[in-house]
Automatic annotation (TrEMBL):
Its cofactor is pyridoxal 5'-phosphate. Keywords: Aminotransferase, Pyridoxal phosphate, Transferase. GO terms for molecular function: L-aspartate:2-oxoglutarate aminotransferase activity; pyridoxal phosphate binding. Its EC number is 2.6.1.1. It comes from Extremus antarcticus. InterPro entries: Aminotransferase_I/II_large, Asp_trans, NHTrfase_class1_PyrdxlP-BS, PyrdxlP-dep_Trfase, PyrdxlP-dep_Trfase_major, PyrdxlP-dep_Trfase_small. This is Aspartate aminotransferase. The keyword Transferase applies. In eukaryotes there are cytoplasmic, mitochondrial and chloroplastic isozymes. It catalyses: L-aspartate + 2-oxoglutarate = oxaloacetate + L-glutamate. Residues 1-43 are annotated as: Disordered.
Length: 451
């Protein structure tokens, strides 16, 4: 499916500031009663609201209650509620420490080559045509957020420049809150497609498809490859096929965010299926890939951005030109990416024995979360908590949209010291055999009080 919407113009020098603008700045920075006034007054730089997630984390830390539960943070915890270093990461860490050639020199602008090539094979498959035909260019990024950001920058600079107005990006309602900021900050218009039905606590597939059908040709559609954040609700494979068909018919551009490959179901192939189906259909597309969750490398910020072009005689030329512009964007943003997390992931991805251990670690994490889903649903049904709770086990991955409303969430926090986002999303990794019954009892009490 050739795409002629990407243009790579020559760089233009920045325009000089006008005399009027310089005069305005001069007046702003002038003296007032002998005191220099800032050029960044409150009318120019208003106080920003606190990030809701980090505010929730801070409130949890301040809480002195003996029994409290953090279900907000999106990070895996073991059955003791502690951060878990994957055994395979410990092995790779030990190998790195013993490597006599380890140094702290700069990586190339595009990142660690062994890491980016292994990342391609992980997300697309080592025998994928996009890999064997060299139709993909990849850049190491600062986790998934960095991958989204460089993709957003690239789109804002080069995508569909001939259109009368900038193409919008359609995002699910709800979506990960940072998606709106990433794309809004580079002035890509954002729109929404329906995704989650609060009535059924499942996918609003008809609403999603109908909105995508009505999107103008050339629009961008942001898709969660698996373990949708924040709902935990994914399309079935048949629904993915319909989504691809509609997007192809209406000439829409896919941008996949994949943060949970292997973590969601325990199967790397199953969690990567949607991306590879779109590739098989000939789409040109972007992928933002994170290693925070599936390697537990939260603070190491290891990620990868991939541009895939569709099959064409000039595909490799397209990849080369796109790569040259991505290098300029990367250079101006971070110069080159951090090395340590990429080295850990690269060791694992390129060593068959370590890779097999990683797959076992993934099954450990996904399996514990699945067990917590079963335990929570079972307890709520045992208590005969008003409502239906099958969606707890129907959903997948780290998060669950419980169906609790903002008032109920507030009651859980004030009375029972349970911390979760206002929209009722919980991190299933925050539950364990020591607190799941307490949480279920608290939910039962609050639901009965507020129904």
């Amino acid at each position: 499916m050739p795409n002629n919407n990407l243009t790579l113009p020559s760089q233009q020098p920045p325009k000089k500031q006008s005399t009027d603008r310089l005069q305005q700045l001069s007046e702003q920075m002038g003296s007032t009663n002998g005191t220099s006034a800032s050029a960044f007054g409150k009318d120019i730089v208003p106080q920003a609201p606190e990030d809701p997630m980090f505010g929730l984390m801070a409130a949890y830390r301040r809480d002195t209650a003996e029994m409290k539960i953090d279900l907000g943070i999106g990070a895996y915890r073991d059955n003791n509620g502690k951060p878990w270093i994957l055994p395979v990461v410990k092995q790779a860490d030990e190998l790195l420490r013993k490597d006599p050639n380890l140094n702290h020199e700069y990586l190339p602008i595009a990142g660690l080559p062994d890491f980016t090539s292994a990342s391609q094979k992980l997300v697309f498959g080592k025998d994928s045509p996009v890999v064997t035909e060299k139709r993909v260019v990849s850049f190491q990024t600062i986790s998934g957020t960095g991958a989204l950001h460089i993709g957003a920058l690239f789109l804002s600079k080069f995508y569909n420049r001939s259109a009368s107005e900038a193409p919008a990006i359609y995002m699910s309602n709800p979506t990960w809150a940072n998606h709106n900021q990433v794309f809004g900050n580079v002035n890509i218009p954002t729109k929404q497609y329906p995704y989650f039905s609060r009535e059924t606590c499942s996918l609003d597939f008809d609403g999603m498809i109908n909105t995508i059908k009505s999107a103008p040709a050339g629009s961008i559609v942001l898709l969660h490859a698996c373990a949708h954040n924040p709902t935990g609700v994914d399309p079935t494979q048949e629904q993915w096929k319909q989504i691809a068909s509609v997007m192809k018919e209406h000439h829409l551009f896919p941008f996949f965010d994949t943060a949970y490959q292997g973590f969601a179901s325990g199967s790397l192939a199953k969690d990567g299926w949607a991306i590879n189906y779109f590739v098989e259909q000939g789409f040109e597309l972007l992928v933002a890939q994170s290693y925070a969750k599936n390697f537990g490398l939260y603070g190491e910020r290891a990620g990868c951005f991939h541009f895939v072009t569709s099959p064409a005689s000039n595909a490799q030329d397209t990849v080369a030109r796109v790569g040259s512009q991505l290098a300029i964007l990367q250079r101006s943003e971070i110069s080159n990416p951090p090395a340590y997390g990429a080295r850990i992931a690269s060791l694992v991805l390129n060593d068959p024995k370590l890779f097999a251990q990683w797959e076992e670690d993934l099954r450990t994490m996904s399996g514990r979360i699945i067990e917590m889903r079963k335990a929570l649903r079972g307890k709520l049904e045992e208590l005969k908590t008003p409502g239906t709770w099958h969606h707890i086990t129907d959903q997948i991955g780290m998060f669950s949209f419980t169906g609790l409303d903002e008032r109920q969430v507030g009651e859980l926090r004030e009375k029972y010291h349970v911390y979760m986002t206002k929209n009722g999303r919980i991190s299933m990794a925050g539950l364990n055999t020591g607190n799941v019954e307490y949480f279920a009892d608290a939910v039962d009490a609050v639901v009965r009080e507020t129904k």
